[in-house]
Design a protein that fits this description.
The chain has about 220 residues and is an alpha+beta fold. About 25% of the residues lie in helices and about 35% in strands. It has 6 helices and 10 strands, in the order αβαααββββββαββαβ.
Length: about 220
């Protein structure tokens, strides 16, 4: 009996023994792409726990890279992704760490940004850390992600800006390094925010970084 790769049965929907290792991996790569946005020439994937031990057989390594390059979960090109990449340097590291979720990965892009996330089952994902800051992004909503100096009034100021554009906030998640230190805010929206709205937030005092993270299709 010939062994069949998970990626040989993608059409039109990815199917196989573990959606968390396949579709979830692609979606993690896609979300990292949505967050980083810029073109890149180098990426390192650090696979943890179950991703590290069984991911190779399920195509997790291919899925992560393909997603980061913009391919969808049902694209048959994924099974040959290693043969098609010429301009991107990629590498993998495999780690066991009981403090991490069973299917988790760190995606380090161009040695500039580290995006950490989990594949939580049935193709669903969550991004939980970016460059050491706690975030909470699952790809189901358009999300404003911002890094800023922790100070009173920032949440209400940003909320007021969003309200003026008649956009409803679905969820809001905040984290900080310390009182008065650097903080992060993830704001999930019912409809996409335009660049004008994002620019208004970007130009607030003590905002270091802000970007629109588009939801996954």
């Amino acid at each position: 009996m010939t062994e069949q790769s998970i990626f040989s049965v993608i059409s039109p929907i990815m199917v196989g023994p573990s959606s968390s290792h396949t579709a979830g991996a692609v979606r993690l790569g896609l979300m990292a792409r949505n967050i980083y946005k810029d073109s890149f020439s180098k990426v390192k994937f650090v696979l943890h726990n179950s991703f590290a031990t069984t991911g190779f057989g399920h195509g997790t390594d291919k899925g992560l890279l393909a997603g980061l390059l913009g391919y969808m979960v049902d694209d048959p090109i994924i099974k040959n992704i290693f043969n098609l990449i010429k301009d991107v340097e990629y590498s993998y590291e495999y780690v066991q760490d009981i403090s991490r979720f069973p299917n988790s990965v760190d995606i380090i892009i161009d040695d500039k940004m580290k995006i950490s996330g989990d594949s939580v089952g049935a193709g669903e994902i969550r991004i939980n850390r970016i460059d050491g800051f706690d975030v909470n992004i699952n790809g189901n909503y358009d999300t404003i992600l911002m890094i800023y100096k922790d100070k009173p009034g920032m949440i209400s100021t940003v909320s007021d800006i969003i309200q003026k554009y008649k956009i409803n906030i679905a969820t809001l998640h905040c984290g900080r390094s310390s009182k008065g230190g650097t903080a992060s805010m993830c704001i999930e929206l019912d409809i996409p925010a335009g660049e004008e709205l994002t620019d208004k937030i970007r130009h607030l005092k003590d905002v270091f970084f802000v970007t629109n993270v588009r939801k996954l299709k």
